[in-house]
Structures are given as C-alpha cells and as structure tokens.
C-alpha cells in the first residue's frame, strides 16, 4: 500500500469516539449511561427555529452557491449582535461565516502561520485545535497553565515564551475555556492584546461559549479602532442556538488578514450551509431573550453541579465555567486515562481524560455538565463515589 500522510499518523485519534468506546461493554448496573463527553446543548432548539430551518431548506434559492464569506443577512445580524454585546461598532465587512468553528480555526491558522511559523496554545488545550495544527504541519508552542492560577493563562509566562520563540505568529485564547471552563476577565484579555501587539503577534480569541457569560462586555477589544490589525475573533452558532449539526461559525477580522482569508474560504468551503444561514439571520435578533434565558439556565446548572459535587469532596473541581468542570482525581487514584475508562466501563459515567487535552494533565477529567439534565447531574457524584 502506498504511504499515507505522516502528519495524520502523528495526529491523535478523535477523542470523543475513543472515550465512548470504553463504555460499550457497560452492563447498566449503576443506572443509565451518563454521557458527559461532548459539549452539546442540553435542550432542543425552539420550535420556531426548527420551522425556519425546514422552510429555508425547501427554498430553491438556498440550494445554489452563495457568497464565499457568507450571506449578507447573517453577517449583518451577527455584526449587530456583537456590536450590542460589546458596546462597540462591528460591521458586516468584518464578518465571515464559516462551516463551523473548527474549520474557522483551521482557516485562520493557515492564514496567520506561514512557512516555519508557530502558534501558541494554552495547555491544557482544546484537542481539535492541536489536531488542526498537527495536520497542517504548524508547530505548536504550549502556554502551560496551573491550578494555582485557576487555569487562567499567565501573561508574564506567555511573554517569556514569546521572547524565547520568535517563530510564534499567533497566540490563541479560548474564553470561556475548553476544557477547563476558566473565563478570562476583560482586563486579562486586554493585557494579552497589548502583549501581542507589542511583539507583533496575532491574538486569536475563540469565544465559542460567550453567549453563556453574565451580561456585560466580555472585553473591550472591539472599541479599539485598530483591533483589525492584530485581533481575530472566532464564534460558533452551535451552542447558543442548539444547532451543531448545521455546522455554522464565524470569523471576525479585517484588513490584510481578511483579504488573505477569502482565499482560504473559497478553497476550503466555497460557501457555508445556506438554509442554516437564512434561518439564523432571523434567529440572531429574534431569539435574544431565549439565549439570555439559556445563559441563566446554564448558570443554574453549573451551581447545581457544584453543590452536588460537595458530596464527593475528594473529587475537587479545579476550574469551572460555561460548559465544563475540570475535575481533579482523588489522591492515590490511577491516572486519568485509567479512571475515565473504568468510570465508563464499570459505572456508566463517560468523561474525557486530561491527557486528551495535552501532556501534564494526568490528574484531571473534563466533565461537560451542560449537556445533562438535572437528574443526570445529581447522579454523577454517586458514580464517582462508587469508583
């Protein structure tokens, strides 16, 4: 057989199918399977959005090609929503709609990191970010985070790493974070933006979960008239609108970056899913209150989960945010890979082990509590206690 790509051979296998496979032989003795592996909304889209999706899928106009950077109606709706949320002016010319946020990240890094250039990722990292860099042959420079910092990135540590690695062209922040849930404050984001600007490095800010934050601007970057010269923003419609199967995300950026991005958009996606774009152009303004209610729902679910975990204090939550709890194994327990496999196979609790999110995370599990109903979350401590 002819050889395959060595980059793909070095890339880790998809994490969620691997973790779910551990539970294939679970006998049901502890109760129904509790799947906390994937970040999916724990409630359905509203009926009105489902109806719109069906209507738009049946329109002949939506069966043809559209603009490579997305249909104007959705770009305008998202620009208006972001302008309102951040108290700054963002225009539709800053917005490109993508076939999901994972593809958005891949296209952004292909634009920012040329030959020999590297990208800095916070460690633990979102595994698909690391996989995308591996497949593209882009070196990844870790920015280690620590329990004592609440798993927030340290700008002084980042500055030292940037100074030692002049090949770094972009620094990635995910807030609220995946996998830890940690939320960067506006001041911390501003510090990183200034750090990147000073060193001529792009700041890539992935805010997939920003709709689940408390009201108020998550940062002030868009108020800087020069933000387009050094900041790229990533967004996903999947979680906020409960439509991950529609595969729609967005990139915000301008100037020379946007001109280069259009080449990547045209090559890798031609155009995003058009029926989904049309439905979401309606949904962005129409479902604003529904989204706000879901943010409150998720905050309540997080509080409930934290309270429930008090019953098993040996399992410590080291960080927690919009969708995830980054949970430390009890002292003396096997490493996270062994623990995750045993929890799935013997106790019906499916989680993701820390090593899936990079080296040095052997004592942690990621629990995606947002995708489970209250009764399921209440059962988690009992499964952990059995282990």
From TrEMBL:
Gene3D superfamilies: Type I PLP-dependent aspartate aminotransferase-like (Major domain). CDD domains: AAT_like. InterPro entries: Aminotransferase_I/II_large (IPR004839), AspAT/PAT-like (IPR050596), PyrdxlP-dep_Trfase (IPR015424), PyrdxlP-dep_Trfase_major (IPR015421). Its cofactor is pyridoxal 5'-phosphate. GO terms for molecular function: L-aspartate:2-oxoglutarate aminotransferase activity; pyridoxal phosphate binding. Keywords: Aminotransferase, Pyridoxal phosphate, Transferase. It is an enzyme of class 2 (transferase). GO terms for biological process: amino acid metabolic process. It comes from the Bacteria. Residues 35-377 form the Aminotransferase class I/classII large domain. Belongs to the class-I pyridoxal-phosphate-dependent aminotransferase family. This is aspartate transaminase. It comes from Humitalea rosea.
